[in-house]
Specification:
Structural class: alpha+beta
Shape: globular
Number of domains: 1
Mean pLDDT: 87
Radius of gyration: 16 Å
Length: about 180
């Protein structure tokens, strides 16, 4: 593990079980570029702050059941071109990390779209809804057949959506490089 990863892991461990969301933004040398504390389930940033996070590593905690990256997390990381986005949380005695390193291969967001979070969210929303519907129905069928339990379904729902989204976005030139690690 290199020095940058050690520095980030230290902060992830520090914030993973906090009751309100905390965010740290790192540069490539491991320096804290910015940090912010939010409320129980969100942190707000200005457009100016988000624009300054280009090519930075954005880490934050999720306070509820270590859920996966949200659609908002993913879309912000694409629009504002984060080098990486990570969300950490605690499940039982383990830290769970979700991360994405988005890269746009075929498309380029123009300035008007880049600044309009809700326009891009609308554009990508059809992919997110499609993934959600397919996962929801598969999980629901498996729950009815007792192949999975409710706790497992809740823990994995967003994770499976993001795995499917990872594949779907490649078709429009966006590599999400999404993953989950249990540490």
């Amino acid at each position: 593990m290199d020095i940058l990863q050690k520095i980030i892991l230290e902060k992830e461990k520090e914030i993973m079980a906090k009751s309100v969301e905390h965010a740290y933004i790192f540069d490539e040398q491991g320096n804290i570029f910015s940090r912010k504390v939010g409320i129980s389930e969100q942190i707000s940033f200005t457009t100016s702050e988000l624009n300054s996070f280009k090519d930075k590593i954005f880490i934050h905690n999720h306070t509820e059941d270590a859920t996966s990256l949200s659609d908002k997390d993913i879309i912000l990381s694409i629009i504002y071109q984060f080098k990486e986005i990570r969300a950490v949380g605690k499940v039982k005695d383990k830290m769970v990390r979700y991360s994405a390193t988005p890269k746009m291969n075929k498309i380029k967001l123009n300035d008007a779209l880049k600044g309009a979070f809700y326009n891009v969210r609308k554009l990508l929303n059809k992919y997110i809804i499609d993934a959600d519907n397919k996962i929801y129905h598969a999980f629901n069928n498996d729950l009815k057949k007792n192949k999975i339990n409710k706790e497992w379904a809740e823990f994995n729902h967003l994770h499976y959506i993001n795995k499917r989204l990872n594949q779907t976005l490649k078709t429009i030139g966006i590599e999400l490089n999404y993953k989950r690690e249990i540490i």
